[in-house]
Specification:
It comes from Bosea rubneri. There is one protein chain. By secondary structure, the protein is α/β, with parallel strands linked by helices. It is built from 9 helices and 11 strands. Strands 1, 2, 3, 4, 5, 6, 7, 8, 9, 10 and 11 form an 11-stranded mixed sheet that branches.
Length: 279
């Protein structure tokens, strides 16, 4: 399975709140099935506040808190090493101590030298981890699988491809090729938001996917009144029983996203199924 996947990267950011993720288990499962190497970045997010701003009391608080966060990150790193060993996965585990301003660059640099990245879904666009997801999507040049809570086993027997005929969608389709052989694939085109008549239709994409060993069906869905594209994709994925949803990632200005929303942002806010996204 997935013979083209040789290196998988996943990142976990310890902020001291004791949160846990699904991405590690999912990445381990993917690496195990693909016979790939797994790199785990368990970063301790350190506070870096000048003493002149917080005084002696603040300094006395920050130093122990940084040590606590680092300890938690290292504990997660040990969990990752043990889990990889039990799964028979060759893994490299890194536990860097970084301030938030350094996290995005570190993550992107690692993502660029792996076949794909696996990250946890973050519903709140204002949270730090959402910024890291966006950095991986738009700056790494590599695909990202975004995993919702509770999904810890990789599967790609049924794949839904959200297709609008664009170059971005074509890039996402190219990234899912390692998983096509033996899979059931549904090509979904959602009409009603924009004119798709000038783009390559899903029916023309289908033979290409069939040549890669997939059993392909094509579905065109018109938006219902008040429905957005992301909701149409989620509904179609549920009806198809998709293990994985594939779509291009689109970036607009922050102002435009705030005013108009956007398919990418909407999917990142709520997706019960793993998303393979590429830019």
């Amino acid at each position: 399975m997935a013979p083209m996947i040789k290196s998988v990267f996943t990142a976990y950011t310890e902020e001291g709140e004791g949160e846990r993720d699904s991405a590690l288990g999912y990445a381990l499962s993917l690496a195990q099935q693909a016979g790939a190497h797994l790199t785990v970045q368990a970063a301790a997010m350190r506070y870096n506040i000048p003493g002149t701003l917080i005084g002696d009391f603040g300094v006395a608080f920050v130093a122990p808190e940084n040590r606590r966060i680092t300890s938690l990150a290292k504990r997660f790193g040990e969990l990752a090493r043990t889990s990889a060993a039990l799964a028979g996965v060759n893994a490299t585990v890194e536990t860097p101590e970084l301030i938030y301003a350094e996290l995005g660059g570190w993550l992107v640099s690692q993502a660029r030298v792996h076949d794909l990245s696996v990250l946890d879904l973050e519903k709140d666009a204002a949270q730090r981890d959402r910024g890291l997801i966006e950095a991986a999507l738009f700056d790494s040049g590599r695909p990202v699988i975004i995993v919702p809570p509770g999904v810890e086993t990789f599967a790609a027997k049924r794949i839904l491809i959200a297709w609008d005929g664009s170059a971005t969608a074509a890039r996402a389709v190219a990234e899912v090729r390692p998983f096509l052989a033996g899979a059931e694939v549904e090509i979904l085109s959602v009409t009603g938001e924009k004119d798709l008549s000038k783009f390559v239709a899903g029916a023309e994409l289908a033979p290409h996917l069939s040549r890669h060993g997939a059993a392909v069906s094509v579905r065109n869905v018109a938006l219902a009144t008040g429905q957005d594209v992301a909701e149409a994709i989620r509904m179609a994925a549920a009806e198809f029983g998709a293990d994985l949803v594939v779509c291009g990632a689109y970036k607009h200005s922050r102002l435009r996203e705030w005013i108009l929303g956007g398919v990418t942002q909407s999917l990142l806010k709520a997706s019960p199924r793993p998303l393979l996204m590429s830019r």
